[in-house]
Specification:
Helix content is 46%, strand content 16%. Strand 7, helix 7 and strand 8 form a beta-alpha-beta unit. Helix 1 crosses helix 7. It folds into three domains: 189 residues, Rossmann fold (3-Layer(aba) Sandwich); 146 residues, 3-Layer(aba) Sandwich (Rossmann fold), CATH 3.40.50.1980; 51 residues. It is an alpha/beta fold.
Amino acid sequence: MKYLKKANTSAEEFSSGARKVVEEVLADIRANGEDAVRELAKKFDKWEQDFVLSPEKKARLIASVPETVKKDIRFAYEQITCFAKAQRDSIKDFEIMTPAGVRAGQKVIPMDAAGCYVPGGRFAHTCSALMSIATAKVAGVPFVVAATPPRGDSIDPSVCYAMDLAGADVILEMGGIQSVAAMAYGLFTGKKANIIAGPGNAFVAEAKALLAGEGVCGIDLFAGPSEIAILADAQADPMTVAIDLLSQGEHGVNSPVWLFTDSEALAERVLEIMPKLIADMPDPATPQKSWDDYAEIIVCDSREEMVEISDRYAPEHLEVLCEDTDWWLNHLTSYGSLFMGEFSTVTHGDKCAGPNHILPTKKAAHFSGGLNVHKYLKICTYQQPASMEASCLISGYASRLSRVEGMEGHARACDWRLTKYQPEKNWDFKVYRHPAY
């Protein structure tokens, strides 16, 4: 392999400085609750209105959304919920009888409350609202609070419509660290979120990570700058490769874009095309910075080496613009979401194809998938020996194993049952008999 283009820097965004700010803000909110949130919103968003979106204001915002836009949002909602329902159906309650005679099973239980953060900033993240909120509702979460930063005197109307369509029970006009904390601590709603989901900037991501680390709530994943990698062979269209790389480079100045190919000619052509595509963008500065600092092009010796490199990078979004897409599907193992063939593009998944677009970054795809229905579910197990004989069988083994591990108290819990249920039996190992029995 060789680099035709190498990144000038890494995509490390979550500095110790950001963590220090988040720690201070969370400490303030823990100490002062809703008053602290009001002060933070006033400071950062110049917001002094109510945070909970009223039915009247929500109706006005929704009414301002053009019907053509609503139609497109409804289309995306239908695709996303269709896929989410299939995910939900893929995991079920079950019950078995083990060989030793224990009735055992699992219950799939939705979380009681979920908090869904929808970013603000340069874009209106309308589809992110659908991805997090609708997925939670399909999972069966009875209470979903959603938060997004206001723009001026309200949140974005299209985001508001998407939140309402997806089933948000409460909408908070609030962004940043304070909104994540408010959902986790149940401020303004009285219901603490069991999980906080949704992407955000470095401060939002740090807040989620710290709250999860403190045991306040769970989180979907630790999201960093958006990433794309493209696997392309000699048959790929260089323009398709270049424009798909550009599409993700506009997310931010630190969004990595990577091309792994076995065709140096294709790589050279992409290098030639990219500056022209960037210059043609309405805001060329952002994708230019992403391309200059974070883009990489690696020419590999074989498709097997392309797989090896791709799995090492574990990209958030991975496009396969190669022949024999099924071969790649069967060999690739580390990615957030896979987009196969020229008919597919990351933009489809980001907006309305169906699978969730809230995905792992910074190599987290080595151990995690993206947001899905299962993130909002608890898989709880249960067990019950079917008979006294089964209880004694398990107790005998468990007692001996407990003593192998040096856990006398554990062993005695089993010994008690052995002596209670079968007092006449002489055991072939040490059994503790309580003097009172």
